Amino acid sequence: MNRSLAEHISGEKIAVVEEKDSSEQPVVRVFKSSGSEPFVETQSIPGDFDSLKWETFLPAEVFVSPGIDPRRVFFKQVSTFEVRELDFFCRHFSGMKIGITGTDGKSTFTTWLGEVLKRSLPHKKIFVGGNLSPPMTDALEQGFDGAVLEISSFQAERLKSARLDAGIILNLASDHLDRYDSIEKYFDAKWNLLRRSNLAFFPSDIEVPADLTIKSPCNFENSESIVTVLKKILPVLLKSMGGSDSPLPPQIFEDLPQLPHRLNIFKDSIGAVFVNDSKATTVHAATYGLLEIQKQVAKVKLILGGRHKGDDFSELAGVLRPQDEVLIYGEAGFLIEEHLVGISQKTRRYRTLKELLEVELSKVVAGEALQLSPGCSSYDEFSNFEERGDYFIQQVRRIRLF
Question: What is the pTM of this model?
């Protein structure tokens, strides 16, 4: 159970954890807590969530980790009792609630929007978190006037009572097709946030569900940069929060915080560039990152690979310049090669990212960029995109920056 969430639930609390025992067999561990007492393990049950007898724990409010696939069998047993974290948050938070979703750029946009709201409204206390962390429930009972929340598609699913003052879809592109049966169902999870928002911001050039009759109060497109979208949305939000409707000073958008693993740029002594964009886990994000770095260097060596999430890498073909190269690695390597067959750019494939970097880091020359925008999840080789990005930086420093 989310520790912050658990702190705001009264009465007896039960945390049910699915894992594997020492012999790699599935086991469910049960932990209990009462009031503010720490959780104590009380039971270990062979099997997984799908074989567990959930009726022994019901009736109760059930909070399911958003990372668990709702297509699993056990969801039928708990769906009536499920409470989504965002439902719980909206029930208890009285300030302005802004939710941000989309395929790419959510974390950066959430951080930037929170920062410019703080600069524009210094008399208000603004919380920034959600899927980005810290968890949204950290904002409860701390006197915040507003909350700017990154909301994933997993968190937006199956909402029952949540109501937000504003919901924002930044962009929509293919993603998470390992979780959703179709791209339409993935998109619908995003739209679900806007169905529960008083103000709804979304790109003007995408198809809107028939049941969503609300109009976006400002105009932006699916492919626009997040800083452009920010500048268009901010005046509307400020007005709704009681701010001034006078023109915003340009300096309010200067020196916005950069998030780790999102187009972080390093240069060595000869002018070679190394880009850690490990957070780019979709083709849409990799394309955005590639276009940004192409503006800065004559040649990009683009690193793609990891575990495939259902995207079509052929979309990159129209963005690569003749002089660019593609370096492929990992579990999805062969599939990426198939998607990019016929491109004129040089490609090389490696078994792992570690093997790729051992070979390629020493070859980058002045005016070139070695860019990790993998377009895949990290789970074939690393625990998460942060670990993958950290490894990339470590190797760059070891071999090129010393």
Answer: 0.85
